[in-house]
């Protein structure tokens, strides 16, 4: 659990590992090797880009030394709020960790759209929206890559390729989404949930 605002800077945070995110947890810009390196906020432990970690605050747990912090923690620690931050988040901007923690099902699946190559995605069906499949690049990402409203899709669970025996397909008129699980058990878990969702049941 993330530190409560009152505890920011008083206790060392749990650092989110670099490989758990593919984008800055504040501005949502994707990381890349050159221009966007990963930095950790010393107050909340989030992984942020240089732009979003360009703040410094005195942290109690570190003997009140000046430490790199993200914009949000900076405002909390020095005691001012940023009204911009309070604007309602868009649908894709629900944090993966938040959604995964309260989900019907979540796991990595291989995903393919049209003729693009297969890619690994962190897939989640949240409890409060059990008819929508959210796809993230990694479990701690703060913005979804895509969402698929499952209602009305047709499920085809016969694998087309021997390389990915645990695959299944969702089709609706022109759109086709292919998924593959690492094993049959996981595939069946997903199918159980998806078969209900496409009929509008939860």
TrEMBL record:
Cell compartment(s), UniProt: Cytoplasm, Cytoskeleton
Tell me the domain of life.
Eukaryota
Q: Does the keyword DNA-binding apply?
A: no
* GO cellular component term of the entry, any: cytoskeleton
Segments forming domain B box-type: 19-69
* PH domain residues: 102-199
Q: Which UniProt keywords apply?
A: Cytoplasm, Cytoskeleton, Guanine-nucleotide releasing factor, Metal-binding, Phosphoprotein, Repeat, Zinc, Zinc-finger
Q: Cite a single GO MF annotation.
A: guanyl-nucleotide exchange factor activity
InterPro entries with a match to the protein in the record:
FGD1-4_PH2, FYVE_RhoGEF_PH, PH-like_dom_sf, PH_domain, Znf_B-box, Znf_FYVE, Znf_FYVE-rel, Znf_RING/FYVE/PHD
Ranges of residues in domain FYVE-type: 18-74
Q: Which GO terms describe its biological process?
A: cytoskeleton organization; filopodium assembly
User: What is this protein called in UniProt?
Assistant: FGD4 protein
> Native species of this protein?
Anthoscopus minutus
